[in-house]
Design brief:
- By secondary structure, this protein is mainly alpha-helical.
- Helix content is 70%, strand content 0%.
- It has eleven helices and no strands.
Length: 309
């Protein structure tokens, strides 16, 4: 048995990287049906429909879920889950797991990190994550958006078929479709989600309102999810529409936004707001609470058993 250590060291970058990806996958498994309902509500009302697709109308979060279960079966709620988990393992590991490391980089390893530094760290890790994991996001959205065609078929047969089909029909660039609006979205999401969580948690601890435990993590995560939904919904809707669009439907993300504004009005940018909040709020709570527990658990294991992290 290895001797125990009394040193109270914080979690390493490797622990944060692994913990963020794992926690995000757990959160996705629990909240994926809400995300699928959000995507269906966001793309509803597009002028161009996939030929032969059903004209099902969705009403509200739970109405959408019930309609999908009735018309497509329960498995449709988890359509694109494999790509979603691939996305979270590569995406969340970078944007969340490297956030503290990026803060230290910008502050040159000093203890204090102001709001500007945190915003810069959030923007940087968000952009890095999108550049790396964009193909998984494109495939996830395509799967969540697809409905049964008149002949009972579907747009893609499986996850790998989706990657191959998109690359063949739209070129390699098709896998990075919507990369710019997604970078914009994730800069906003990271700055509102991570920075808000970071600051709420810091305030709760600084003023001794709570201790660094589960209720504190829950409160900070709920606040972060609410703020993120309000700020990020418009760009999230544009990102979803653009990434799901067929070749030539929109010339750019900006054109997609103006088309939505002209055809459906300003409220179209908040389509799917309720499922977005339910999903982001619950996703943030599950992810951050799990992430904090993984960090604490792995740090304790590292301190007492000298694991190589």
């Amino acid at each position: 048995m290895v001797a125990r250590k009394a040193v109270d060291a914080g979690p390493s970058a490797a622990v944060k990287f692994f913990g963020a990806g794992t926690a995000a996958c757990i959160a996705d498994l629990i909240t994926f049906p809400l995300d699928t309902a959000k995507v269906r509500l966001q793309i509803q009302g597009e002028a161009h429909k996939i030929e032969g697709a059903s004209a099902t109308k969705y009403r509200g979060v739970f109405g959408t879920i019930m309609t999908m279960v009735r018309t497509e079966g329960p498995r449709s709620l988890y359509s694109g889950l494999v790509a979603g988990l691939q996305r979270q393992m590569s995406f969340a590991s970078v944007r969340i797991g490297l956030y503290d490391s990026m803060k230290q980089f910008y502050t040159r390893s000093t203890e204090s990190a102001g709001i500007v530094t945190r915003l810069m760290a959030g923007c940087t890790t968000g952009a890095m994550a999108v550049a790396f994991a964009q193909p998984t996001d494109v495939v996830k959205v395509r799967f969540q958006a697809q409905v049964r065609l008149a002949d009972g078929g579907k747009r893609y047969k499986g996850t790998m078929d989706a990657y191959k089909t998109i690359a063949r029909d739209e070129g390699i660039r098709g896998l990075w479709k919507g990369c710019i609006p997604n970078i914009t979205r994730n800069a906003i999401v990271n700055c509102s989600e991570l920075v808000t969580y970071d600051m709420i948690k810091e305030l709760l601890l600084t003023y001794d309102l709570m201790t660094d435990n589960l209720p504190c993590h829950f409160t900070a995560a709920f606040g972060a999810g609410f703020c993120t939904t309000i700020v990020a919904s418009p760009v999230d809707v544009v990102k979803t529409r653009f990434m799901n669009s067929g070749t030539g439907q929109y010339s750019s993300a900006i054109n997609c936004a103006f088309t939505m504004l002209r055809n459906e009005g300003a409220t179209s940018f908040y389509k799917g707001f309720t499922p977005s909040f339910l999903r982001l709020g619950s996703w943030n709570i599950v992810m951050f609470v799990t992430y904090e527990q993984i960090k604490q658990g792995m740090t304790r294991a590292h301190q007492y058993w000298e694991l190589p992290f």
